[in-house]
Amino acid sequence: MENCEIPYHIDFSPLKDVRAERIVLQLPDGLKQYAACLSGKIQELTDASVFIDGDSSFGACDLHWPRLAYILRADVIVHIGHTPYPPSLAHEGVEPGGRPRIIYLQARSRHKPPRRLLDEVIGKMREEGWKNIVLTATSQHTHLLREIRDVLVRSGVEAIIPPSKPPYFEEGQVIGCDYHLARRFDADAFLIVAGGVFHALGLYLSTFKPLLQLDPYRGELIDRTREFEKFYGARLYKVSQAMNAKSWGVVVGLKTGQYRPWLVDKLVKLIESRGGTHHVYVMEHVDEQRLRTIDSPIIDAWVITSCPRIPLDDLHRYEKPVLTPGEARMALQGSLEPYLFPW
Ligand code: SF4
Question: Residue of the nearest CA to atom 7 in ligand 1?
Fold first, then answer.
């Protein structure tokens, strides 16, 4: 490999026996800066022509395989940074010509939280009188969880790591639209090892328990509980606004893991049963500019069935309610509880 320093450990051994002519390398945006380095390594190992996917790939739900297969004629996609998307959550479409083989490689972050942050966790638990805590992480940090658990347990704290569900979830892993393995535990508090806010927010909205975030990139322990309580209040306000909606815009995702026809069907039937009207939009990418382009005065509220990050993270300040499917169901059923997240 060229002189490449990458703050992630990636095990390339699954590529050793790969026979392919055209390989596409796919990475989340945060790792794209290493793509030029990594493509050299893949080329060396496989002798294939390697193409770097320069478009965004927000998760294993966003593989672009139909156009990579049919336009580029790729045999293999090497997708780095995510575990496979659970098929129970989406319908990936028919495959008349077969899909390229998809090889998932994990990118293990080399950022390690300093010991003082674990002492802060222990101090916080004692201060709050919490007896047990569930440990979770995004895929880049799951390898840290056993070590964190051992430190906490040695200090008398009961720390639990949710089980794995191969190949979709590693031990303790959460994804932004599925927290079911973590929410099974009725602990006093939850901890997530992750950068950014979205995964921590999703975990809070799935559990409503005190939430500590250990951010290995910023080297910080953050108690997110108060901030997320306020955010939850704002979401309920959006849901209550949408209770009066007569006409709904329903966004259907066309990314490979974001097409959820049963969910669209359920929402459409619910809208109809309440005497409302709906307009169904199919699209791959939704952001504020796209929504402003497609928005119409006759639409009162939007529901996004593709990805819960869009309403929560990107569009939560939009003037009209832009809801997750769970929130839309609440609005349509005229009830502010229980809070349904994300579907
Ligand atoms: S939260 Fe959105 S981007 Fe992340 S895996 Fe789920 S659908 Fe994909």
Answer: 307
DSSP symbols for 67-89: HHHHTS--SEEEEES-PPPPGGG
Domains of the chain: 8-109 (3.40.50.11840), 115-223 (3.40.50.11850), 230-333 (3.40.50.11860)
Number of neighbours of residue 54 by Cβ within 10 angstroms: 10
The model's pTM is 0.95
Two structure tokens written together for 207 = 């559990």
* Residue in the structure block whose two tokens are 């972050």: 109
Give the pLDDT band of residue 5 (cuts 50, 70, 90).
Answer: confident
Cα 59 to averaged position of ligand 1 atoms, centre (Å): 6
Q: Does residue 138 line the site of ligand 1, with CB under 6 A?
A: no
Q: What is the model's pLDDT at position 93?
A: 67
Residue 98 confidence class, pLDDT cut points 50, 70, 90: confident
- Say what the pLDDT of residue 96 is: 61
Residue 3: pLDDT above 70?
Answer: no
